[in-house]
């Protein structure tokens, strides 16, 4: 997402330390930022935040964390959180590569990846948010029965992600090859999803887990 540079963005984000972490103040203690022990769901690369703020408004008993590295974009998430006076969402302005600095092992119940940058060139494969180094980070922070929900319009990234996750040893509990033509359930569209769906693009979606539930009944 290319957003016009906003020279005031950092100062604005810094005005709300109760909502935004910009200097890794919550290293290893991000869950203590909330004054309850509700489950934590995160969105990596949340863009302008339509998806996660809608979820937060609908589910007050879940704690949400939006992770977005671009300050010029994060200000749009902060606007939405303030306008709706949402108390169950926090914003981490940082790169996903440092997620393990914030979370303890298995602290997160769900990870959303929506319309992640596809990085189509082979030399940029490592930047894809489903490259194995990122899966390694997600596995560290995700609860054993936690899951990843992934949506994209990009067929190449979808195919790559299915392969990368399956090679990592993950398994899929849901795969939709044309989300908007199938039963969408309670699908919440993101800003990118609106844009691509309007153009007639097909939207792909899947849910994945790291470990088979080995509990014996
Ligand atoms: N999820 C939003 C949507 O669907 O409308 C935004 C999609 S946009 C294509 C991808 C976003 O992910 C951008 O805002 C970008 O800055 C962010 N992003 C990409 N790589 C990231 C990373 N490694 N860590 C944090 N944010 C990242």
Characterize the structure shown:
- This protein is an alpha/beta fold and 217 residues long.
- Helix content is 28%, strand content 21%.
- It is built from 6 helices and 8 strands, in the order H-E-E-H-E-H-E-E-H-E-H-E-H-E.
- The chain has an 8-stranded mixed sheet, with helices on both faces.
- The longest helix has 14 residues, at 155-168.
Low-confidence segments? none
Number of helices: 6
Tell me the radius of gyration: 17 Å
Q: Strand count, sense and closure of the main sheet?
A: 8 strands, mixed
Number of strands: 8
For the biggest β-sheet, the strand order reads 1-4-3-2-5-6-8-7
Which class best fits the helix and strand makeup?
A: alpha/beta
Proportion of residues in helical segments: 25-40%
* Ligands present: S-adenosylmethionine
User: What overall geometry do the principal axes of the alpha carbons give?
Assistant: globular
Q: N- to C-terminal separation? A: 47 Å
Order of helices and strands: HEEHEHEEHEHEHE
Overall pLDDT score? 94
Beta-strand residue percentage: 15-25%
Question: What's the arrangement of secondary structure elements?
Answer:
Blueprint lengths: L8 H6 L5 E2 L18 E5 L5 H9 L4 E5 L3 H13 L5 E4 L15 E7 L17 H10 E11 L2 H14 L2 E6 L14 H8 L5 E6 L8
Parallel strand pairs: 1-4, 2-3, 2-5, 3-4, 5-6
Antiparallel strand pairs: 6-8, 7-8
The chain binds S-adenosylmethionine.
